[in-house]
Prior knowledge:
Number of strands: 6
Distance between the termini: 32 Å
Strand content: 5-15%
Structural class: alpha/beta
Largest sheet: 4 strands, mixed
Shape: globular
Radius of gyration: 17 Å
Amino acid sequence: MTSLQIVGRRSSHFTRIARIFAEELGVSYDILPIYDMTAQNPAIYADNPALKLPILRVGADVVFGTENICRALADHAHESTAIVWPEQLRTAVSRNAQELVWHCMTAQVQIVFGTLVARLPADNLYFEKARTGFEGALTWLDAHLPEALTALPEARRLSLFEVSLFCMIEHLHFRQTLPIEPYSKLEAFRKSFATRPSAQNTSYQFDVAPA
């Protein structure tokens, strides 16, 4: 059997999406941590030239990007599972919701990497605009979440929208980039999804490099 390795970080919401998919699909994998996100050697990122994570190693092959990895994991599942992918979303609200989840995740990376890792001034216009857009997207998602969820097919085991939304909201608790209290619908969704074993088995944590 071909071994699967997810190269990423347990503290990353993009990596956690892939891990939840693997858990839900019953696909065995190992996780190989990237300890230093300031590294600029593609070899550290499993030869991803964009220097981004996560990456999936499947034998001699590599797969770049969270959504691509989730699709590859589905291909390796022993049983067919009803998964809703972004191209199956049929309403403007559901499509916009997925787009805004991706936006929130990217904005949080910008803020965390820029202010905490690179130690740039938090009051820089670049980060102020990122936070404003982040807050606006969260407000929209909170207001439209019931409609976006209702638009999903009932006969589903998993959807990329729900997994990515959960990982994004949970990451707000983990990194505390923005307060989550104003968004009661998003918080209720997080608490519900958090009861799934796949969520409990992939909790956020920092990877500590061996001494």
